[in-house]
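pasting for ref
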Amino acid sequence: KPKGAAIAPILVTMQNPAHLSRYLEIASRLRARGMATEAYLERKSLGAQLRYADKKGFQLVLIADDPEFQQEKVLVKKMQTGEQKEVFLQTLEESISSMLSSK
């Protein structure tokens, strides 16, 4: 069964509703750089959010909760390969852009 066509290549997951403003800020920063990004706003498990991302054909999924935010990082998962990489928020846009172009 072919994957759905994601409207955007990037999905920002929501691990903790207390960080909603940070998730939205991350999505906004990426959009401002011309990278189509969707923020997942439903309170569902990470597994459910990853299944959604896989079904919709997202290329990159951003994951963060207290430990990542305390280190000013997010975890970026390449859906096609399963590879995960920690990215500093300070270099978020550049890192995501290069990950998208390297597929």
